[in-house]
Amino acid sequence: MVVLKIILTIIMIAAIAGVIALVMEVLTKPVHKPYGPYERFIKRPLDVFLSVGALIVLSPIWIVTAIMVRLRLGSPILFVQERPGLDESIFKLYKFRTMTDKRDEKGELLPDEIRLTSFGKKLRSTSLDELPELLNIIKGDMAVVGPRPLLVKYLPWYTEKQHKRHDVRPGLTGYSQAHGRNTVNWDDKLDMDVEYSKHITFKGDAQIILDTIKTVFKREGISSETSATMEDFRDYCRSIGRVPNGE
Question: Which of 22, 39, 60, 88 could form a disulfide with 45 if both were Cys (CB 3.0 to 4.6 A apart)?
Fold first, then answer.
C-alpha cells in the first residue's frame, strides 16, 4: 500500500508538471512552421512528465553518481557548457563530468583520449553522464528525443540545410544516437537530424527511445574511428574541403 501511494504521488507530481508545460507550450511556442497534433500538444508535456518522474525515481542513482564523480574526478561535479538549442538560441547544458582537467605545459587542455578516464568511459557507455540533462528538459531547453545539442563553435560550419536541425529542440537522445552514435560520419549524422526535424511523430519518438536503450545496453558507438568521443566537426569539414560560412 505504501509503495502504491508513492507511485501515485510521483505520477501526480509528474502529471501536474506536464499540464503546466502544455499550457506554457501552447501560449509561447513560436509558429514558424506547421506542427502536427503530437508535436504541438503532446510532445512537450509528455517530455516533462517523463523527466520529472525519472528525476524522482532515479534520484538515488543521481546521488551515488554525483558522489563517485566527486571522489574520482573532483569538483565541479557537473560539466556545464553552452550549446545551441531551438532556433539556435544558446542555453547551458548540464552533464556529469567524465574528464579530468589535465593540461600541458602551455596550460592548454590535453586531448580527450588522455583526459577521459576509465571511470568516465563507464559513465559514457552507460549514459549516466547524461542524467543532469533531465533538468534541461524540464526547463524547456531540450526534449527527450531530438537532435543532440552540439558545440556553439560548429554553427558557422553548417550548410544551409544542416542549420535546419535547430528547427526543433535538441534531445537527450536522437535518431543518430540510436543508429550508430559516434561512429556515423558527420554529414550522415546531421542529415538524420534534419530528416527527424521534418517528421516528428509519437511512433517515431517511441522507436528512437527503444533503439537507444538497446544501444546503451550493448554499449555501442561510444567512440569514433578517430577519437575517444567524436571527431571535431571543424576537422571533418576541413578534411572534405568545406570552409565556414563567410570565409
Answer: 22
pTM of model > 0.85? yes
pLDDT band at residue 226, thresholds of 50, 70 and 90?
very low
Beta bridge partners of 80: 94
CB-CB contact of 136 with 164 (8 Å):
no
Radius of gyration of the chain measured on its C-alpha atoms: 19
- C-alpha of 103 from chain center: 27
- Cell 587542455 belongs to which residue? 109
DSSP of the chain: -HHHHHHHHHHHHHHHHHHHHHHHHHHH---SS---HIIIIIHHHHHHHHHHHHHHHTHHHHHHHHHHHHHHH-S-SEEEEEEE-GGG-EEEEEEE--B---B-TTSPBPPHHHHB-HHHHHHHHHTGGGTTHHHHHHHTS-EEESPPP--GGGGGGS-TTGGGGGGS--EEE-HHHHTTGGGS-HHHHHHHHHHHHH---HHHHHHHHHHHHHHHHHT-SSS-SSSSS---HHHHHHHTT---TT-
pLDDT digits (tens, 9 = 90+) for 27-47: 877 655 667 889 888 999 999
CB 45 within 8 A of CB 38: no
- Size (the chain), residues: 247
How many whole angstroms separate alpha carbon 124 and alpha carbon 69? Answer: 12
Strand partners, 99: 116
Task: Report the b/e string of 80-107 with b at 16+ CB within 10 A.
Answer: eeebbbbeeeebebbbbbbbbeeeeeee
First to last CA, the chain: 66
